[in-house]
Each structure stands twice: as C-alpha cells, then as structure tokens.
Design brief:
KDP operon transcriptional regulatory protein KdpE; five-stranded parallel β-sheet; Sig_transdc_resp-reg_receiver; phosphoprotein; Rossmann fold; alpha/beta
Length: 239
C-alpha cells in the first residue's frame, strides 16, 4: 500500500494548525521517550504515525507500506540508520521525505551523504521545526494549499517513557556484553539522557564511549552506568 498517495488529496484539506493532515510518517526509533515525542509531534500536526524500533521492524513496515515520510534514528540496536537511509534513497519510487535524526551534532553530514533530505537534531521538541523539516522537503505537487501557521509550541513527552528506556538499558546490560552492545549502549543512553536533561547519565555514557574508542577497560564505566540506571528505575517506581 502506498500511503503517500493518500496525502495528495488529503493535503488539500489540511488547515493552518494541522499542515501535515493525511501524511503518514514512519518513525524508526528505539528510544520510547524520543518516539513519544515524535508521536505527539505527528498528532499535533495532523499526521499519522507508524513506528519501528529497529531496522528489522522498519523493513517489515516498508514491505507493506510506502509512507510519505520516514524519520530514521542513526543509532539502532541492530545496525546503523545510515544503511536504511541509503537503501531508501535509492529505491524507485522513492519515499518523498527521508530525514535522519540523532543526538550527535556531528551526524548531520553523514545522514545527508547517505541520501537523507534533511536532519533533525535531538531532542526534537519544536512543533514548528518538525513541520518545517517535512514540509520544506515535499515535492511541489504534495505541498498543502494556502498559508500555514508556524507554531512555537514545545512538545514534552511523558517522563514515564524515560523509565521504559531505562528498563531497555538494564536489559542490554544484563543480557549482552559484546563490544557491539557497549557501543550501542553508550550511544543510546547518551542520546536519551541529553533529551531528558539527565547530565550525570549523559556524562557516564560519554565516558563509556570515550573508553571504548581508546581501547581502555570499561569496567568502572559500565558499573557506574548500571548504578545510575537502577537509581532511575527505582525513583520512577517510587513515584
């Protein structure tokens, strides 16, 4: 099914407050907190959302649907989002809008080089910036008719979604001790912690990433992260 075809007519019915009415956005994101932010952004904009938490799940969606836009986190549990961007950018027919997304400020160039039309730096909280990132990349025949109202509304996800991310991190810590899992954990926790404003956890994730890059022992870093994750899980349970 080609979801983007539905947008061609639905876009004519969009209104200034819901400029993405009829658009279907596939969000490929492993963080529940970040995904909740994207859900709220799509809801406020009038777009429908489909979600995938890994490359495998995204490919299952894409075998059945062709969304109007795809927003792809670059760090995923089963590989790099850059690979999916490259694949989608070369497909015919092509998805109208492909956006990379990451908490790494240096990742934008890699996303664009891989074939993305644009880039969303995490945390994505501005409704106006989200809408502009998609609308500015749509082809002319899919642009909504008329003027739109640019919103400065800030989207703040439910903090309970952060607890889900901490539970996921705890699972990675307990179930997998491969080099690949440590790199993923550092990237995942760093991005989530920065989105929420959790400086201690963000610093611990950065220290783990630095030790991995330099080939040093990571015993102290992983122990610190395990303790911080458990603290956050216990705090959330108490609430």
């Amino acid at each position: 099914m080609d979801d983007s075809d539905l947008f061609a007519s639905a876009s004519r019915l969009s209104n200034p407050r819901r400029p993405l009415l009829g658009l279907t956005v596939l969000v490929v994101e492993d963080s529940r907190y970040a995904c909740e932010a994207m859900r709220l952004l799509c809801l406020r904009s009038g777009a429908r959302i489909r979600r995938a938490d890994c490359l495998k799940s995204a490919n299952r969606h894409l075998q059945v649907y062709r969304p109007s836009a795809v927003v792809i986190d670059l760090g995923l549990p089963d590989g790099s989002g850059l690979d999916l961007i490259r694949e989608l950018s070369q497909c015919t027919p092509r998805v109208s809008v492909i956006l990379g997304m990451s908490g790494d400020d240096n990742a934008e160039a890699a996303a664009i080089e891989a074939g993305a039309d644009g880039f969303l730096p995490k945390p994505v909280t501005s409704l106006g910036a989200f809408q502009t990132a998609i609308l500015s990349k749509l082809p002319p025949d899919r642009q909504p008719v008329g003027l739109r109202q640019v919103s400065d509304e800030e989207i703040i996800p439910d903090r309970l979604a952060y607890r889900d991310d901490m539970a996921h991190a705890a699972e990675v810590l307990n179930d997998d001790e491969s080099d690949k899992s440590w790199d993923y954990l550092a990237q995942f926790l760093g991005g989530v912690a920065r989105s929420v404003g959790d400086a201690p956890l963000a610093d611990a994730a950065a220290a783990l990433a630095a030790s991995r890059k330099e080939g040093r022992s990571i015993a102290s870093e992983t122990a610190q992260i395990a303790g911080l994750v458990q603290e956050r899980l216990q705090e959330r349970v108490a609430i």
